[in-house]
Predict the structure.
Amino acid sequence: MLELVNKSWWKILSFVLLVYTITAGFLFDVPKLHILNETIRNLYFHVCMWMGMMVLFAISFYHSIKYLRHQNFRSDIASSNYAAVGCLYGILGYLTGFLWVNVTWVTDQGQSLAGVLKEPKLIGAAIALLIYGAYFVLRGSFTDIDKRARVSAVYNIFAFAMLFPSIWIIPRLVGSLHPGAPGSESGNPALDRKDLDATMRMVFYPAIIGWTLLGVWIATLKIRLDFIKHKNIINE
């Protein structure tokens, strides 16, 4: 029993943190900010999904480099599965963000839906997810396992390199409704240290850890299934 706990402590931690996040996220008090109001609770889901996505893509990037160095098929399997779960988190982050802006920017602030869809950060996120979507299309186009692994690893490195400019850098250089970008003062108030009070920090940081660990958990399950499916190739 103790050995099982030692191996699975991070899974138990993920479960506990997510139960805490969901419970506290809906029940704890939050700052009453203009426009955001109670929707600020989406911070525990939308932003944390994006943070988890970045970590998962970073792990996928690491395994791609590891494959190119050692030509180990296990690394290729790990890289593709972490990228897959990262894409899932990206889609969930995109959907929760779209729901958020539909209430705050469209309903409360009177922005048009067409204008919101032109938001630089939303466009950048969509481009990043499309780049990773092309990664899986590329993998599916190869029948040769070795060639698929090599080309996929190189492309994955490129996709990860494009992730930061498309999501973090370019949207901050142009006018945006998102906090922290030029022109954001006319949109949402920026979520600075005064807005993210002590109560929210007690939920926000554990939420990032919990969602990220859940993503790693899902990826490891998928990896184990692929190891079983391809055990003949792995053991060669």
